Amino acid sequence: MSAMALFGQLLLGLINGSFYAMLSLGLAIVFGLLGIVNAAQGAFYMLGAFFAWMLGQYLGIGYWPSLLLAPIGVAAFGMLLERTIIKRVYNLDHLYGLLLTLGLFQIIQGLFVYWYGTSGQPYDYPEALSGGHNLGFMFLPNYRAWVVVASLILCFGTWFAIERTRLGAYLRAATENPTLVRAFGINVPLLVTLAFGGGVALAGVAGVLAAPIYQVNPLMGGNILITVFAVVVIGGFGSILGSIVTGLMLGVLEGFSKVFYPEASNMVIFAIMIVVLMTKPQGLFGRER
Amino acid sequence: MPETAVLEIAGLQGWYGESHVLHGVDLNVGWGEVVTLIGRNGVGKTTTLRAIMGILRRREGSVKVMGTETIRLAPERVARLGVGYVPEERGIFASLTVTENLMLPPTLAPDGMTLDEIYRLFPNLLDRARSQGSKLSGGEQQMLAIARILRTGARFLLLDEPTEGLAPVIVQQIGAVLETIKHKGLTVLLVEQNFRFAANAADRHYVMESGKIVDMISKSEIAGKMERLEEYLGV
Fold first, then answer.
1. Among partner residues B93, B96, B106, which is closest to A185 by beta-carbon distance?
2. Is the CB of residue A288 less than 8 Å away from at least one CB of chain B?
3. Domain A9-128+138-279 sits in CATH 1.10.3470
4. What is the distance between the alpha carbons of residues A110 and A269, in angstroms, rounded to a whole number?
5. pTM: predicted TM-score of the whole model, two decimal places
6. Which residues of chain A neighbour B56 with C-beta distances below 8 Å?
7. Is A183's CB within 8 Å of B74's CB?
8. ipTM score assigned to the predicted complex
9. Which element (helix H / strand E) includes A134?
10. How close are the terminal C-alpha atoms of chain B, in Å?
11. Per the CATH hierarchy, to which homologous superfamily does domain B7-233 belong?
């Protein structure tokens, strides 16, 4: 096989991995602080893409402003759901949160299928990132390079904010002992709402970044969500760094398997998930419970 | 100092789920006092502190902190009045370093201790600054739990059994820290099982039995009431 094909698939894998990383990172934050397995994360990804598309379609707002505005819209909608619906299951078993958010996911997805059908809306590349570079061993489209770079910056920026800043210390402390953090004078319920907003905004950004590559389709969230769950299980539920590294790694691995044995590419992540669950059930980066 | 007391509790009732734990607690703490809450295990001492902080969800009666009624306030609002809380289990965050633990509670008032003062009072914490909270010994955890409250400028401290399970030499150190706290004019409500420690440290003692205050003994009365005290504490 040609080097072109190999590196092409590697790039595609890296891009998928970037989306896995952003979505599972958002899941990790929300699970860590709220104890909610947010099955609606795929819907927020889809909403990010749709908000960007709507901003362009109805208001003539371009890609760059939408890259900021659409995730803010996603975060606002997410925080509204958290305050009104999701917070009611905090004191119940994790399973209830999973089922509740799965229900929300189905409703949001169903509404968008009803409104926009399943054929998908095209979304244009931003002018500045059209074209690409021939690197000799492969052709690198500018937009795809941008997606990888942007998601890496976003993921490691988020990691830094959580692990190295004061706000991050509040988040980590509140994950461990929310009651005591409140007794120090910190408004933990507000912190939880903001963290939920931040977690789903990551999915929203991923959705906007994905829009020009995959089109804007109501089903895009469902397609990616199952894989993202597998990524999260492999990385270790709630692990920040685990989500990022595992997401990227598995995207690349999936890309490689498309080159060497395409028939297995849809299964490889799940096969790894099963092996991990059998040998290290807390995940590669997870702590023992 | 303001006219109002730091803490005025009247008819405080409290529940854990269905079980009724506090049956009308009445007590007062004045500015600059160190007051203990003593009594046998399970009489409601820790619960009283949790009720003051607003951590105990179901509570009735009146709890005034520096003149403000707090019976309906969330814990973060109570803390913001200038209350520092050191829980019985110390509450050191395992995933945070010692420094992060120390810097975690937000400043409540401008006149808290500086880091220099804190490290002078607790030299161990400087040595362990980069350690994870989970790696500390029991004594170090207790020091850290007290130190991080002193940094915030809280003027009223709730300490829940600071000497529990610690070696005598550490208990002595904590006694010295309490002296410093008192010297700085801070007000302390202390839950304590170790009566010898409590007798040295405190101005007054409230004795609790079955969710109520049954007696109040001041420092000068201790010698004369030793027999009664031993009966209360079941020693």
1. B106
2. no
3. yes
4. 27
5. 0.89
6. none
7. no
8. 0.92
9. strand A132-134
10. 39
11. P-loop containing nucleotide triphosphate hydrolases (3.40.50.300)
